[in-house]
Amino acid sequence: MANQIKSYEALLERLWADEQLKNNFIANPKAILTEMGVHISNSITVEVHEDTLELKNLVLPLKSESQVGNVAESAPGFQAVIQQAWQDESFKSQLLQNPKATIQKVTGTDLSNTLKICVYEDTKIVKHLVVPVNAANEELSELDLMTVAGGIIRQPIGLVLDSLS
User: Fold this and answer.
1) pTM score, two decimals?
2) Is the residue at 63 inside a domain?
3) What is the pLDDT of residue 157?
4) How many angstroms separate the Cα of 73 from the Cα of each of 85, 117, 150, 153?
């Protein structure tokens, strides 16, 4: 299959290079992922959120053995927030209801007044994916730097989507 992808990084590079593909992916992610050789169970819903310079979307992954190791790799600055949300339901509720204030409190990072943050929680039947701002085209915010930590997630697409099968 010519369109097959191996990593989330490869998918993002394609999306950043092709605005129409990105728009199609946001509108119908399962169809695009299927075209790219990624099998997703019919019982799974995939939602895609696009970052902008004024909007940062973060995903609270399901806690599983495979995810615990990936958190440190994929979002070192956001790791403490994820770990605390996994351990404390009250904190998780605060994070989902008022993400910006909660993240500022935990990380000590002063975030721009104009920045909006949305946090989505993965479930066994809903997987959230984020299309970040292309770092090659834009200056990254403090939160982008905290969550990206110098590079795009370099994980096989199966790990990024591990709860989809």
Assistant:
1) 0.78
2) yes
3) 47
4) 18, 21, 11, 8
